[in-house]
Fold:
Amino acid sequence: MHIVVCIKQIIDPEVPFHLFRIDPVTKTQIRGSHPLVISLYDEVAVEVAIQAKEKFGGRVTVITIGTKEAVQALHQALAMGADAAVLLSDPAFEGVDSFGKARILAAALRKIGSFDLVLCGRQAGDVEMGLVGPFLAEELGIPCATLVSNVVSGNGKIRLKRPTETGYEVLEAPLPCLATITNDETNVPRYASVKGIRAAMRVPIPTWSAADLGLDLARSQEERRIEIDEMWIPQREIRCELISGESAEERARNLALRLRELGLI
Amino acid sequence: MTSVLAFCTATVTSIPRSALEVVAAARSLAQQLGGVSAQALLLGARVEQQAYALIQHGADEVFLVDHPSLASLEDEVALGVAEYVVRQMTPQVVLFPHDDLAGGHVAPRLAYRLKAGIVTDCTGFAVQDHEIRWLRPVYGGKAMAYFRAQGPIQVATVRSRAFEPLPADPSRRGEVRPVDINPETFLPTVRAVERVETAEVEEGPSLDRAEIIVSGGRGMGSAEGFQVLHDLARVLGAAVGGSRPAADMGWVPHSHLVGQTGKIVAPKLYIAVGISGATQHMAGAGSSKTIVAINKDPDAPIFKLAHIGVVSEWEKVIPPLIQIFREMRSQG
Ligand SMILES: Cc1cc2nc3c(=O)[nH]c(=O)nc-3n(C[C@H](O)[C@H](O)[C@H](O)COP(=O)(O)OP(=O)(O)OC[C@H]3O[C@@H](n4cnc5c(N)ncnc54)[C@H](O)[C@@H]3O)c2cc1C
Structure:
């Protein structure tokens, strides 16, 4: 089974609120000195792909749209256990919306040629629209399973686990298909081993441009259907009433009394 | 006349709150656009009564797709039905609840097929000169943004609890129009072949309904630590929730995850223990009337987002707290 995982590199979303800045003109987060990471659900998707490879055999390719810096994200996925990686990079890719991104990824998948399963995180950890996965399935014209957390069997038809309110369900899909990945306790991303990190550095990573993909993105640039008009940081601080008390036990008592006074318990 | 169409599902016994919320959003948007009707598309099995209820809750007209096969709804069947109805009725805007079915599957694929601009997980909108700007949090709630969607039709999904359901008004009148379509003509390529219930039958109230929620984070340290929260919840008659690390470590089932990608809750009292207060978590807990934070780190961001704070290790506060609540209970 050949699994292709689409990942996005983002500024670490765990940056604390007080260090978070935006550029009101470009309407994006200011990078500052914050680290770049693989977007959380995409990293989970890499984990799911590697687990599937371990269970059912096959290979894993990761692809990303980004600048040269995004090679770092591909290296991390390789170090976790992916076999190959491709960087999709071109100035023309900048600023396209989710429709445009799906076109770029679909062109890359066609160039890769044969694949059985395409995985995308359920949503990126920055703007979190959750569109690229389903859009890509449409663009490729393949079945789409959403919000699944693992591959439970991989022969012929594929079976996927999807968490539900009260447990989980097993979805069956023909191949090739695309799945968007959510997290559960079975797919917490592994750390790369030192050996994995070393091996990853030796894997050549080709860069494909719009021309390599035979893409004319003028149309995607013109036809942007999703646009950010304005962005701001809301002021949301609440005055927190701190419960006093010498000992923890006294604070516990004062808390209980305060909650009763407020009629909350 | 153009319209705003709200996508709703229901069962024979109930209408989910999310359906009433999208109908309320559609009503409000239709009013602000002016001269536009608020329609609903309702899918389900034996749900005709619910269609009339949607009218009482704000819809002018309901397109009803009522079929036994819709008792359990496959994503692609819902997509097929939605696409069919939207192409027929050509509304100006289609609104969905931002849930797993619609937000995760139907809305994005429908938007793609219609070449419609789409904005997901909206918490509001602003209308000016008949132009809609969609409001939504970005960067895990650290910033807010207005989006514009272009295209022949606009699609949006609305975040749970961003809109209040309108109270039922029995005097409201409207048409319920059965749609002449057999949902079984949409053959799903992806099918559920097995459903497994793993959640233990829960004691106490559900997260959605609970007046009090006790929620734990990474700071609880272990599954055993989490047990103490269950004891606290029991004396308070509260439901138990958790942050993402707590859910990832299996201390609390994933269905009890509170936050942007989990449940959005709005209890009277939310007690967050060993939770740092990440915006992604607070996106799910922020509408609680009173938030109490118990955290050992006085600089934890949650102390800027909670109404009442206790700086302490939970190990030292929760056991006496349980004892005190017990005493209060027995004293009545
Ligand atoms: C796209 C995306 C979506 C996300 N969605 C969600 C979501 O829906 N829900 C969610 O919760 N998170 C979500 N997250 C994760 C979120 O960003 C945070 O990582 C997470 O909420 C942190 O959980 P926590 O507060 O339990 O852990 P930490 O941030 O590690 O905080 C633990 C806290 O416990 C305190 N503590 C430690 N020991 C003790 C003790 N003995 N007594 C008292 N206090 C103690 C510490 O001081 C600390 O403040 C999402 C992230 C991304 C990128």
Observations:
- Chain B touches chain A through 81 residues (CB under 8 Å).
- The two ends of chain B are 60 Å apart (CA to CA).
- The first strand of chain B starts at residue 3 and ends at 9.
